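[Meeting: bench + compute handoff]

Bench side (C.D.) handed over the final construct sequence. Compute side (W.E.) agreed to return the predicted structure before the next meeting so the bench team could plan truncations. Sequence as handed over:
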Amino acid sequence: MENPYEHDWLDDEVHVGGRGLLVSLGAFVLFLLAPALSLLLPSLRPELSAKPPAGTLKARLAAWEEGARTLPLLESWRRSDQARLVRALGAGNRRVVATKDGWLHYRPDLESVFGRGPYYVEPPSVARERQDRAWQAPLPVVRDFAEQLDRRGIRLVFVPVPTKPMLCRTGLGLGEDAVPHPDWHRVAAELTDAGIEFVDLLPTIGGTGGDAARYLKQDTHWTPTAMAAAARAVAARIDPGAEARSPAFEELRRSSRGDLVGMLDLAESDAAALFPTETAALLRPAEPGTPDGDGEADVVLLGDSFVNIFEDPGLGFGIDGEESIGAGFAAHLAAALERPVRTIAVNGGGASSVREAFAALPPERLGSIGTVVWTFSARDLFLAELPARRAGIEWRRVELPDPAAGPPKKGSEASLAIEVVATLRERSEIENPNRPAYTEAVFSTLFESDDGGEFYVFHWAFRQRKLEPASALAVGRRYRLRLVPLESAAPAVQRATRLDDLFRTDLDPWFAELAEEAPDR
């Protein structure tokens, strides 16, 4: 018997004409090409519609290349979606955790409290990403650095700064009492037993008042009040007489939007609408000019952005044209001690970069140093390997020079500016400027001159999250360089985050004031 439904499908057949097919195909192709078209049509990118990329042709090409990596139109959509999530749900992103009453927290800071900690050893796994360098646990590196200083008669005062969630708990729905990582006291005891002076700032900062008196609401860093209390505590550890001193300060009121707002990566209009600027009352010593000393200070301060937060205008609390604010941790420490303090502070570089910069000092300079104060975020110390790598933290052993060493390192022929023509052999990678916690960074390169000499050179990678022309330097090409010793470069260069995969401590570091392509030989 014939099936009466055998040909019913013929009744449901849909016919699309040639014009409909072309329209559908055109819409599909346009959807695929929209991100690429946004590279060529600035009107599709609000952030570039007012002003096209400036600079040389190479700089423009570098800007277009970066745009191709991030697909600007999709980035604009993503920023809009992030703004909607913040506005409707108070949600953060993979780097920022938003809590009640507008408090923001850095996710690695939370992991430094609730994570596995510095004693945890990651198990071997074929699923783990391959790394160029083996992980070095922090505590052996700290002990090694202390031992090297001790052999030179230098005292180490070790000051890990508690992270924001250790002391600002109410925004997280937790109790008001300070709760550090479970290994905090174990680490303090181990380092103390090794003869290292461990300064515990938990009671010091905890005694400054409530959460708002301890840390900035939209930022990873402490308030001026907490910072000043910490500086007094450290000064008293170095010199007990500092407790009785009362240096004079002048108040500076500065407003900024915190670094955590920047890490949400919102459009400027959305950031302004969702997060009003935060005002801080900075205290600047009435007698400025003592923090950096004259090169003969017997106290050297090594630090990161906790030292720079009220010193570096690039971190938000300065004004245009200022090289420094003069109200940071170094200024307060010098005022409490009533003597100069030499400061080496690199944003995000408290674990290794500052020790590398310290090791680059002239060997004879080490003989005049009596005390090293090493201040950095406790996040660097209390993260286990995998979250530390994700946060860009790396602990590297640094060999200090022998104070009796005679000849200078290779590449340090002059202490003033020099000009060389050299070929770029290696360079560090530069990540998307919108991803790091900091808005400014320098990156390292290795050049070889025509006579075989090597030069370890830093360049601006990006400023205010905008790529610099030097970011386009290509391996294998020859360049004419004007170099100054890194320690003689502008303060903004010395404080900037260092993207350094080369780790050439055998060479003196330089900074390139100029890098322009040179003709082939």
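W.E. noted at the follow-up: The two ends are 91 Å apart (CA to CA). C.D. will use this when planning the next construct.
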